[in-house]
Design a protein that fits this description.
The protein is built from 1 helix and 12 strands, in the order E-E-E-E-E-E-E-E-E-E-H-E-E. It is elongated and about 50 Å long. Strand 2 and strand 3 form a beta hairpin. It is mainly β. 4% of the residues lie in helices and 43% in strands. It has a single domain, classed as Rieske Iron-sulfur Protein, CATH 2.102.10.
């Protein structure tokens, strides 16, 4: 059912850290960059794998999250894809290998959620 769901307080989402929350059985990544708190489905659009668990480790800085599986890079606020499948498990691969790593999938954005900060509380809108 759509609506606002409280996911924590402003203090719980430190600048430059990526957190995972469960909302109605859905895993969501939440990150703070500067004054903004942003949220997206915890699934890379490439293969549907977790953005927070994988061989490349969790990487989030300056509002950008990097998939730990194939290094795809996304703007967490907009979901925009900034780089599509440039590597494997945190390692950059030669440019010619990107199409092979992509497995025929075209670049796609993250599924993002609206975040509302009301006083000290942080809500995600589903």
């Amino acid at each position: 059912m759509p609506g606002r769901v409280r996911i924590g307080t402003v203090a719980e989402f430190s600048d430059g850290e990526l957190h995972t929350v469960e909302v109605d059985g859905t895993s969501i990544v939440v990150g703070a960059s500067g004054d903004a708190v942003c949220a997206a489905l915890n699934r890379c659009p490439h293969l549907g794998l977790s953005l927070t668990k994988g061989p490349g480790g969790t990487r989030f800085s300056d509002g950008e999250v990097v998939c730990p599986w194939h290094n795809s890079r996304f703007d967490l606020a907009s979901g925009e894809n900034l780089d599509w499948t440039p590597g494997v498990a945190g390692r950059q691969m030669p440019r010619w290998s990107r199409r092979m790593i992509a497995l025929g999938k075209q670049p796609a954005p993250l599924t993002t959620y609206e975040v509302v900060v009301d006083g000290n509380d942080v809500f995600v809108v589903l």
